[in-house]
Amino acid sequence: MTCHHYKQALLELAAAGVEPSPELSAHLQACSSCHSTFENERSLLASIDSCLSSSANSEIPSSFIPTLRARLQRESPAAQAARITNPLFWLPAIAAAAVILFIFASQDRRIKSQPTDEHLATKRIESPVATATTSASPSQATTAPINAAVGKHFARKSAIMPDKKPSRAGSSEPEILVPPDQEILLARYANQFRRHHQSSATLLTEVAPDQTAPLQVPLIQIAELDVKPLADTQRDGQQNDLLEK
Amino acid sequence: MQELVLIQPGRTAETDLQRGATEAALRREFEERLAECGPLAFRVARGVLRNTADAEDVAQDAILRAYRRFDKLRDRGRFKAWLVRITFRLALDRAKSANRRQHRETLWSRPERKPAPATAEDLAAANQFRSRLDHAVDELPEKQRLVLLLSAIEGHTLEEVAALLKIPMGTVKSRLFFARKQLAEKLR
Question: Which residue, among A8, A43, A48, would best test binding to B if mutated, counting the most B CBs under 10 Å from its CB?
Fold first, then answer.
């Protein structure tokens, strides 16, 4: 066996922590190089063991067991139940619920502060049709409930289907929900109806008595009479008599 | 401070009484074992983490985890081994996350530097020997590492380690031998 083989065997012996065999002991006594290698390896392993031992056997902190017992006490079922019944346990959940409620309430208030659907429905009552009916028609009393019902209908409908264009809600023009293909036709009809309404309203507007003025009628211009002699007239009469005979 | 007990109306008092007695017995048994196993859990965690504060934290977490599942443990005689494994696993997880964080910070702050080669005597005397040893231990397979750690703890013979881990004595010796050999090769 060469020194290389001996060294391998000696390193393994040192790692195993056992004493060398008689053959290896004899070689160690004879070979200084192998002896040095073996001693270095044992020294290194002793250092390793010492470091590992000092790391693993460090002193236990005095607070370890008391802290552990306290945590175990908190972990017991009775303590958990007591913690659940403690109002402070629910405090974060209550706070979170309060925040959520506050957010919802603020949003609701903001919605209410905007023009409501009923307001829009009231405006819808004042659509060209309804305005003309209520103001120009003499049957004002009979059409008013109908318009109110129509307004309520629109209000209910708009409550279900909110306006997609809220910018129009603030304008003075009333709005009516119509299918998209009928929008132009309805606009034409509204203009036409508005013109009729204006003309009829002008005619039917009552004038105050103090505002009445005497009718200024211009004098009749009569042309001068053209007088002709009666001779021709008598001759024409005789001819007519002869014809009758 | 007096403890409050939550009473469920739908449950009979007798059942509550039985359950309370069982829980009290379990807890008493656990606390009896705790006096012996608590320090061992701390030492295992300390051997892995090499930091007293972290080891205390991890050991307490492991013991609490064992306490929560103590009633599910069939063989109570294996509690010590069970607790050691839980502690070892938790400590390894903590060490890995700490190593990742440290590696990330080191990588961003400065380039990696290789230590200068030195002889075994110099290394043993130098301050960096311990850090090199720690690094070498971290690279060991987990089974070898656990055996090495338990055998390094005072009062644990190889037979006790074998009994604790429920593995044959030859396996303990084999793992310990390969662990020491690997450490020596890296530190030589």
Answer: A48
List the one residue out of B94, B36, B155, B23 whose CA is nearest residue A81.
B23
Contact B177 A65 (CB under 8 A): no
Q: Which residues of A touch B183 (CB under 8 A)?
A: 45, 48
Is B60 close to A75, i.e. CB distance below 8 A? no
3-state helix, strand, coil in chain B (%, to 5): 80, 0, 20
Cβ atoms of A53 and B152 closer than 8 Å: yes
CA A52 – CA B150 distance, rounded (Å): 10
**Terminal-to-terminal C-alpha distance of chain B:** 59
- Other beta carbons less than 10 A from residue B141's beta carbon: 12
d(CA B66, CA A213): 110
SS (H, E, C) B132-160: HHHHHHHCCCHHHHHHHHHHHCCCCCHHH
Tens digit of pLDDT for each residue in B133-171?
A: 888 998 999 999 999 999 988 878 899 899 888 899 999
pTM over 0.95: no
Left (φ > 0), alpha (ψ -120 to 50) or beta: where does A7 sit? alpha
Helix (H) or strand (E) holding A30: helix A22-30
ipTM: 0.72
Inspect the interface and report whether the beta carbons of A82 and B4 lie closer than 8 Å: yes
